[in-house]
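Quiz preparation item.
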Protein backbone atom coordinates (compact mmCIF):
# COMPACT_ATOMS: atom_id res chain seq x y z
CA UNK A 1 0.00 0.00 0.00
CA UNK A 2 2.81 2.38 0.88
CA UNK A 3 4.61 1.58 -2.39
CA UNK A 4 1.41 2.31 -4.35
CA UNK A 5 1.02 5.65 -2.57
CA UNK A 6 4.62 6.64 -3.30
CA UNK A 7 4.29 5.65 -6.94
CA UNK A 8 1.13 7.72 -7.34
CA UNK A 9 2.73 10.71 -5.63
CA UNK A 10 5.83 10.59 -7.83
CA UNK A 11 3.72 10.22 -10.98
CA UNK A 12 1.67 13.33 -10.13
CA UNK A 13 4.80 15.19 -9.08
CA UNK A 14 6.76 14.67 -12.27
CA UNK A 15 3.88 14.58 -14.77
CA UNK A 16 2.71 18.10 -13.86
CA UNK A 17 5.58 20.62 -14.09
CA UNK A 18 3.54 23.22 -12.21
CA UNK A 19 3.10 20.90 -9.21
CA UNK A 20 6.79 20.02 -9.31
CA UNK A 21 7.78 23.68 -9.48
CA UNK A 22 5.56 24.65 -6.56
CA UNK A 23 7.26 22.06 -4.40
CA UNK A 24 10.85 22.53 -5.59
CA UNK A 25 11.00 26.29 -6.20
CA UNK A 26 10.88 27.93 -2.81
CA UNK A 27 12.05 31.35 -3.96
CA UNK A 28 9.50 33.09 -6.15
CA UNK A 29 10.23 35.94 -8.52
CA UNK A 30 6.98 37.65 -7.64
CA UNK A 31 6.14 37.63 -3.93
CA UNK A 32 2.64 37.82 -2.49
CA UNK A 33 3.70 40.82 -0.40
CA UNK A 34 4.67 42.67 -3.60
CA UNK A 35 1.28 41.90 -5.14
CA UNK A 36 -0.55 43.11 -2.02
CA UNK A 37 1.55 46.28 -1.86
CA UNK A 38 0.93 47.15 -5.51
CA UNK A 39 -2.80 46.35 -5.71
CA UNK A 40 -3.51 47.69 -2.21
CA UNK A 41 -7.14 46.59 -2.39
CA UNK A 42 -8.32 43.40 -0.72
CA UNK A 43 -11.48 43.21 -2.86
CA UNK A 44 -9.46 43.34 -6.09
CA UNK A 45 -7.03 40.71 -4.82
CA UNK A 46 -9.96 38.49 -3.80
CA UNK A 47 -11.46 38.82 -7.28
CA UNK A 48 -8.06 37.97 -8.73
CA UNK A 49 -7.91 34.83 -6.60
CA UNK A 50 -11.38 33.82 -7.79
CA UNK A 51 -10.35 34.38 -11.42
CA UNK A 52 -7.23 32.28 -10.87
CA UNK A 53 -9.23 29.46 -9.30
CA UNK A 54 -11.71 29.62 -12.20
CA UNK A 55 -8.87 29.15 -14.72
CA UNK A 56 -9.40 32.59 -16.22
CA UNK A 57 -5.69 33.03 -16.98
CA UNK A 58 -5.56 32.14 -20.66
CA UNK A 59 -1.79 32.30 -21.16
CA UNK A 60 1.35 33.83 -19.67
CA UNK A 61 4.85 34.69 -20.87
CA UNK A 62 7.82 35.68 -18.72
CA UNK A 63 10.93 37.46 -19.99
CA UNK A 64 13.60 37.10 -17.32
CA UNK A 65 15.96 39.55 -19.05
CA UNK A 66 13.40 42.36 -19.19
CA UNK A 67 11.60 41.24 -16.03
CA UNK A 68 8.24 41.49 -17.78
CA UNK A 69 5.22 39.23 -17.38
CA UNK A 70 2.71 39.30 -20.22
CA UNK A 71 -0.48 37.35 -20.50
CA UNK A 72 -4.17 37.23 -21.28
CA UNK A 73 -6.94 36.91 -18.72
CA UNK A 74 -10.55 36.12 -19.51
CA UNK A 75 -13.28 38.54 -18.52
CA UNK A 76 -15.71 37.49 -15.81
CA UNK A 77 -18.11 35.90 -18.31
CA UNK A 78 -15.27 34.40 -20.41
CA UNK A 79 -16.72 35.96 -23.56
CA UNK A 80 -13.46 37.83 -24.26
CA UNK A 81 -9.96 38.20 -22.87
CA UNK A 82 -7.80 41.17 -21.89
CA UNK A 83 -4.06 41.57 -22.44
CA UNK A 84 -2.12 42.25 -19.25
CA UNK A 85 1.49 43.39 -18.79
CA UNK A 86 3.42 43.50 -15.50
CA UNK A 87 6.89 45.07 -15.17
CA UNK A 88 9.00 43.96 -12.21
CA UNK A 89 11.84 45.58 -10.35
CA UNK A 90 15.05 43.60 -9.83
CA UNK A 91 14.02 42.90 -6.23
CA UNK A 92 10.69 41.40 -7.37
CA UNK A 93 8.44 44.36 -6.60
CA UNK A 94 5.93 45.44 -9.22
CA UNK A 95 7.03 48.66 -10.90
CA UNK A 96 3.96 49.07 -13.11
CA UNK A 97 1.14 47.04 -14.60
CA UNK A 98 -1.38 47.69 -17.34
CA UNK A 99 -4.50 45.99 -18.67
CA UNK A 100 -6.63 46.82 -21.71
CA UNK A 101 -9.87 46.36 -19.76
CA UNK A 102 -12.03 49.45 -19.03
CA UNK A 103 -10.52 49.81 -15.55
CA UNK A 104 -7.01 49.64 -16.98
CA UNK A 105 -4.90 49.77 -13.82
CA UNK A 106 -4.91 47.71 -10.62
CA UNK A 107 -7.77 45.55 -11.85
CA UNK A 108 -8.51 41.94 -10.91
CA UNK A 109 -7.07 40.78 -14.26
CA UNK A 110 -3.67 42.14 -13.18
CA UNK A 111 -4.11 40.52 -9.78
CA UNK A 112 -4.98 37.16 -11.38
CA UNK A 113 -1.95 37.20 -13.69
CA UNK A 114 0.33 38.31 -10.85
CA UNK A 115 -0.89 35.46 -8.64
CA UNK A 116 -0.47 33.03 -11.53
CA UNK A 117 3.09 34.29 -11.97
CA UNK A 118 3.77 33.94 -8.24
CA UNK A 119 2.92 30.25 -8.34
CA UNK A 120 4.56 29.39 -11.66
CA UNK A 121 7.72 31.51 -11.96
CA UNK A 122 10.84 30.91 -9.87
CA UNK A 123 14.17 32.72 -9.76
CA UNK A 124 15.75 29.86 -11.73
CA UNK A 125 13.39 30.35 -14.68
CA UNK A 126 14.62 31.73 -17.96
CA UNK A 127 12.38 33.26 -20.60
CA UNK A 128 9.38 30.95 -20.79
CA UNK A 129 5.82 30.78 -21.96
CA UNK A 130 2.69 28.85 -21.10
CA UNK A 131 0.09 27.88 -23.70
CA UNK A 132 2.45 28.89 -26.48
CA UNK A 133 1.31 27.70 -29.93
CA UNK A 134 3.19 24.65 -31.26
CA UNK A 135 6.01 25.28 -33.66
CA UNK A 136 5.39 24.26 -37.28
CA UNK A 137 6.99 21.02 -38.37
CA UNK A 138 10.12 21.33 -40.43
CA UNK A 139 9.86 20.33 -44.05
CA UNK A 140 9.74 21.71 -47.57
CA UNK A 141 6.98 24.19 -48.33
CA UNK A 142 4.76 23.05 -51.18
CA UNK A 143 3.26 25.44 -53.69
CA UNK A 144 -0.41 25.45 -54.64
CA UNK A 145 0.24 23.48 -57.85
CA UNK A 146 1.83 20.68 -55.83
CA UNK A 147 -0.93 20.61 -53.24
CA UNK A 148 -3.70 20.78 -55.82
CA UNK A 149 -2.38 19.42 -59.13
CA UNK A 150 -4.50 20.41 -62.13
CA UNK A 151 -6.87 17.80 -63.44
CA UNK A 152 -7.63 17.29 -67.12
CA UNK A 153 -10.87 19.09 -67.85
CA UNK A 154 -12.89 20.07 -70.90
CA UNK A 155 -16.10 22.07 -70.79
CA UNK A 156 -17.60 20.11 -73.67
CA UNK A 157 -17.50 16.40 -74.26
CA UNK A 158 -17.23 16.95 -78.00
CA UNK A 159 -16.22 19.78 -80.27
CA UNK A 160 -18.37 22.81 -81.08
CA UNK A 161 -20.54 21.98 -84.05
CA UNK A 162 -23.07 23.93 -86.08
CA UNK A 163 -25.81 21.71 -84.68
CA UNK A 164 -24.84 22.51 -81.08
CA UNK A 165 -24.78 26.25 -81.85
CA UNK A 166 -28.23 26.07 -83.40
CA UNK A 167 -29.57 24.17 -80.40
CA UNK A 168 -28.21 26.87 -78.10
CA UNK A 169 -29.81 29.61 -80.20
CA UNK A 170 -33.17 27.88 -80.11
CA UNK A 171 -32.87 27.46 -76.37
CA UNK A 172 -32.15 31.17 -75.91
CA UNK A 173 -35.04 32.19 -78.14
CA UNK A 174 -37.41 29.96 -76.18
CA UNK A 175 -37.13 32.30 -73.17
CA UNK A 176 -38.96 35.02 -75.08
CA UNK A 177 -36.82 37.82 -73.63
CA UNK A 178 -33.39 39.20 -74.32
CA UNK A 179 -30.57 37.53 -72.40
CA UNK A 180 -26.90 38.34 -72.26
CA UNK A 181 -25.70 36.36 -75.30
CA UNK A 182 -28.71 36.79 -77.58
CA UNK A 183 -27.29 39.59 -79.72
CA UNK A 184 -24.02 37.71 -80.13
CA UNK A 185 -25.76 34.58 -81.39
CA UNK A 186 -28.09 36.26 -83.86
CA UNK A 187 -27.14 36.25 -87.49
CA UNK A 188 -25.15 39.33 -88.47
CA UNK A 189 -27.20 41.68 -90.61
CA UNK A 190 -26.05 42.86 -94.01
CA UNK A 191 -26.04 46.45 -92.76
CA UNK A 192 -24.91 46.19 -89.14
CA UNK A 193 -26.51 48.60 -86.71
CA UNK A 194 -23.20 50.06 -85.64
CA UNK A 195 -22.48 51.17 -89.20
CA UNK A 196 -25.65 53.27 -89.21
CA UNK A 197 -25.61 54.59 -85.67
CA UNK A 198 -22.70 55.57 -83.41
CA UNK A 199 -22.14 53.25 -80.44
CA UNK A 200 -20.73 55.20 -77.49
CA UNK A 201 -18.33 52.45 -76.42
CA UNK A 202 -16.84 52.32 -79.90
CA UNK A 203 -16.48 56.10 -80.08
CA UNK A 204 -14.50 56.47 -76.85
CA UNK A 205 -12.24 53.54 -77.77
CA UNK A 206 -11.68 54.62 -81.38
CA UNK A 207 -8.27 55.79 -82.59
CA UNK A 208 -9.65 59.17 -83.70
CA UNK A 209 -11.01 59.93 -80.24
CA UNK A 210 -7.96 58.70 -78.32
CA UNK A 211 -5.50 60.67 -80.47
CA UNK A 212 -7.63 63.82 -80.75
CA UNK A 213 -6.51 67.01 -79.04
CA UNK A 214 -10.07 68.26 -78.71
CA UNK A 215 -11.86 65.10 -77.64
CA UNK A 216 -15.14 66.91 -76.94
CA UNK A 217 -15.43 68.11 -80.53
CA UNK A 218 -14.62 64.66 -81.91
CA UNK A 219 -17.15 63.08 -79.57
CA UNK A 220 -19.91 65.50 -80.60
CA UNK A 221 -19.14 65.01 -84.26
CA UNK A 222 -19.33 61.23 -84.07
CA UNK A 223 -22.49 61.28 -81.93
CA UNK A 224 -24.39 63.54 -84.33
CA UNK A 225 -27.34 61.91 -86.13
CA UNK A 226 -29.72 63.19 -88.79
CA UNK A 227 -33.49 62.74 -89.06
CA UNK A 228 -33.15 59.78 -91.39
CA UNK A 229 -30.89 57.93 -88.90
CA UNK A 230 -33.32 58.62 -86.05
CA UNK A 231 -36.21 57.08 -88.00
CA UNK A 232 -34.02 54.17 -89.02
CA UNK A 233 -33.02 53.45 -85.43
CA UNK A 234 -36.62 53.73 -84.25
CA UNK A 235 -37.62 51.07 -86.76
CA UNK A 236 -34.62 48.85 -85.99
CA UNK A 237 -35.17 48.89 -82.22
CA UNK A 238 -38.91 48.25 -82.27
CA UNK A 239 -39.97 46.26 -79.23
CA UNK A 240 -37.44 47.93 -76.92
CA UNK A 241 -36.76 45.52 -74.02
CA UNK A 242 -37.52 42.52 -76.22
CA UNK A 243 -35.05 43.75 -78.86
CA UNK A 244 -31.35 43.30 -78.10
CA UNK A 245 -30.38 46.19 -80.43
CA UNK A 246 -32.37 48.57 -78.23
CA UNK A 247 -30.01 47.86 -75.32
CA UNK A 248 -26.96 48.34 -77.52
CA UNK A 249 -28.05 51.72 -78.90
CA UNK A 250 -29.19 53.32 -75.63
CA UNK A 251 -26.20 52.26 -73.53
CA UNK A 252 -24.28 55.30 -72.17
CA UNK A 253 -26.83 57.69 -73.73
CA UNK A 254 -29.12 60.19 -72.02
CA UNK A 255 -32.46 58.97 -73.31
CA UNK A 256 -35.96 60.35 -72.74
CA UNK A 257 -36.73 57.63 -70.18
CA UNK A 258 -33.81 58.55 -67.90
CA UNK A 259 -33.41 62.26 -68.61
CA UNK A 260 -35.95 63.22 -65.94
CA UNK A 261 -33.91 61.40 -63.29
CA UNK A 262 -30.77 63.23 -64.46
CA UNK A 263 -32.44 66.65 -64.17
CA UNK A 264 -33.75 65.79 -60.69
CA UNK A 265 -30.27 64.66 -59.58
CA UNK A 266 -28.72 67.90 -60.84
CA UNK A 267 -31.32 69.98 -59.00
CA UNK A 268 -30.68 68.09 -55.74
CA UNK A 269 -26.93 68.06 -56.41
CA UNK A 270 -26.98 64.39 -55.44
CA UNK A 271 -25.96 61.67 -57.86
CA UNK A 272 -26.78 58.19 -56.50
CA UNK A 273 -25.00 55.07 -57.67
CA UNK A 274 -28.27 53.70 -59.05
CA UNK A 275 -28.42 56.58 -61.55
CA UNK A 276 -25.01 55.71 -63.00
CA UNK A 277 -25.95 52.03 -63.16
CA UNK A 278 -29.01 52.99 -65.19
CA UNK A 279 -26.95 55.11 -67.57
CA UNK A 280 -24.36 52.34 -67.95
CA UNK A 281 -27.06 49.82 -68.75
CA UNK A 282 -26.32 47.62 -65.74
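Solution:
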Amino acid sequence: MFILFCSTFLFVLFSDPFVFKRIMAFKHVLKLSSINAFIDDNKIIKRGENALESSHVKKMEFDSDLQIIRGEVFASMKDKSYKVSIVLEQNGDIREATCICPRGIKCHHIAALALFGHYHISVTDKACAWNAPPKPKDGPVKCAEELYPPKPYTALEGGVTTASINRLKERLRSFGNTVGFTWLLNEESINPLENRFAIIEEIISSKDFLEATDKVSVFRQKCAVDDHSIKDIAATTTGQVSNEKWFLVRKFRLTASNFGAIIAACQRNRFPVSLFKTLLGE
